[in-house]
UniProtKB/TrEMBL annotation:
This is Aminopeptidase N-like N-terminal domain-containing protein. The keyword Transmembrane applies. It comes from the Eukaryota. Residues 96-108 have a biased composition (Basic and acidic residues). GO terms for biological process: peptide catabolic process; proteolysis. It holds the Pfam family Peptidase_M1_N. Keywords: Membrane, Transmembrane, Transmembrane helix. One of its GO terms (cellular component) is membrane. It comes from Sinocyclocheilus anshuiensis. One of its GO terms (molecular function) is metalloaminopeptidase activity.
């Protein structure tokens, strides 16, 4: 018993020592407060960092959008300039229009009407006075068009269709008694939508009539659209002709116009060409004049009110036959089977 009592006492003493060594002592109040302060400080720093990063990101995005918008405008102007240079390089006597160098950053009420698929409904054409000189020796033509139009809604933009035309001069007149031209702020060709834009310094007023005068020149293209050329062989000799095909939206290749079916107007056409050719159009010849240099100018009567794609003319050396319908309408047919189109 003595030995066992001694062993138990020794074991209990060792157990007490082990318990004293592994006992978990509680944290003091000072240590707990220090830990909480560090957590709060870290959380505050994280929130502040997030706010700063967000502000920097927003600033960078706004700057990027401004740079992108500026580059887009400059690219449009560069494309217009490049297109004019490419079209004008084939003929050395033609000069590149200054239109491509003009910026078009301003907008009307935050809009850019020349970027829309359809023409703006602010203007309505009433009459076209079109004069063309056709040069069959090098397949080019020059023209001048006077368009009388009505302002439906206040605007300072005139948006017309043009395609492959080099515009040389533009004048805009109001219907007031003063004959002086209105000031043009800028003008440019916007190729993606095939339109030509004239921006005025002041707005045009509703229910008033205005006139625009545009001089231009272009090539007589070798395709079956717009004002194009073709050829045939007669007695071993190749001959050429120039005719039109404006349907559905190709009148813009021959002259600046409101080239949508909804815009109807009357037309008066004059064609100047060499006397070895003859010309036809929708209406009969009203007057014909001859120049000393062997050129002839045919002035055709005013057409009924119609869309641009109904307008037609031909410069050729074919003969034609005329007939009168029961309603008294004169109908002309070109006798060459290559091009036979009813002209009314």
């Amino acid at each position: 018993m003595g030995i066992e009592d001694a062993s138990m006492r020794n074991g209990r003493a060792l157990s007490d020592q082990w318990a004293d060594s592994v006992v978990v002592r509680p944290r003091t109040t000072e240590q707990h407060i220090t830990v909480n302060e560090r957590l709060v400080l870290g959380f505050a720093i994280s929130i502040l960092t997030l706010i700063v990063v967000t502000a920097i990101a927003i600033t960078l995005r706004i700057s990027f959008e401004r740079i992108t918008l500026s580059v887009s405008f400059e690219r449009c102007a560069a494309e217009s300039s490049g297109a004019l240079a490419a079209n004008g390089s084939s003929n050395s006597k033609w000069k590149q229009s200054r239109d491509g160098n003009i910026s078009h950053r301003d907008s009307e009420d935050g809009q850019q009407p020349w970027r829309h698929l359809r023409l703006p409904a602010t203007l309505r054409p009433r009459h076209y006075d079109l004069r063309l000189s056709v040069y069959m020796e090098n397949f080019t033509f020059s023209g001048e068009v006077n368009i009388e139009f009505e302002c439906v809604h206040s605007t300072k933009f005139i948006v017309l269709h043009t395609d492959r035309l080099l515009v040389e001069k533009v004048l805009v007149y109001s219907d007031s008694k003063k004959a002086s031209a209105m000031r043009i702020q800028r003008r440019f060709h916007y190729q993606p939508k095939q339109v030509y834009v004239i921006a005025l310094h002041r707005e045009m007023k509703p229910l008033r009539t205005y006139k625009i005068n545009i001089t231009f020149h272009a090539h007589i293209e070798h395709e079956l659209l717009g004002f194009f050329r073709s050829s045939y062989v007669l007695n071993g000799e190749r001959r050429f002709l120039a005719v039109t095909q404006f349907s559905p939206t190709h009148a813009r290749k021959a002259f600046p116009c409101f080239d949508e079916p909804i815009y109807k107007a009357t037309f008066r056409v004059s064609l100047k060409h060499e006397s070895s050719y003859q010309s036809l159009s929708n209406m009969p010849v009203e007057a014909s004049t001859s120049d000393e240099d062997g050129w002839v100018t045919n002035h055709f009567s005013r057409t009924p009110r119609m869309s641009t794609y109904y307008l037609a003319w031909a410069v050729c050396n074919f003969t034609y036959r005329e007939a009168v319908t029961d309603n008294g309408v004169v109908v002309s047919h070109i006798l060459r089977s290559y091009y036979s189109r009813t002209l009314f």
